[in-house]
Amino acid sequence: MLRYLALGDSYxxxxxxxxxxxxxxxxxxxxxxxxxxxxxxxxxxxxxWTTDELSAAMDAATVSPPYDLVSLLIGVNNxxxxxxxxxxxxxxxxxxxxxxxxxxxxxxxxxxxxxxxxGVTSFGHNSGRDVARIAAELDTYNAVARDETRRAGSHWVxxxxxxRQHPGLLADDGLHPSAxxxxxxxxxxxxxxxxxxxxx
Length: 200
Known about the structure:
Elements: E1 4-8, H1 10-13, H2 23-33, E2 42-45, H3 51-60, E3 69-72, H4 76-80, H5 85-102, E4 110-113, H6 122-125, H7 131-152, E5 155-157, H8 160-165, H9 179-198
Parallel strand pairs: 1-2, 1-3, 3-4, 4-5
Helix pairs in contact: 2-9, 3-5, 5-7
């Protein structure tokens, strides 16, 4: 079986949804249905993690590279805590490079997903924060991640528009996506995953 490592935070671990509703689990299942022998992902992700917390967890985790596919989705908690885009760039670059190394130094085997816009959720609207500012800051973060992902030759998957188009597809907490929204993310990521796994 091909091996998949998924790195991230609440959006990767699937806060509030069953395990099989997480988008990395859905992605692996969909690829298997298409005849790709990809096992369920090893997930290193916890709700609330920032870039540096994910990095520290990777230091402590048991990993066995090379992985055939690696995904990375991180940064929303950096923005939530008011950290700068400049700091995010530095820490994202370190994570990107670590993820590529875990993919056997094959940048084309890395998928990076954009950060969804939590400001459009019911939690976001009730948070007392400026939702337009949340959107603008997340756009800045995502521009950083997109540019650095493409510069490395890895795959960029933009799911932020989906989060804005479907603000009601949420788990019971009114903040995190439902399994139905994760299905849309998976469908957006599927062509990049197919391309990644087809690469030498």
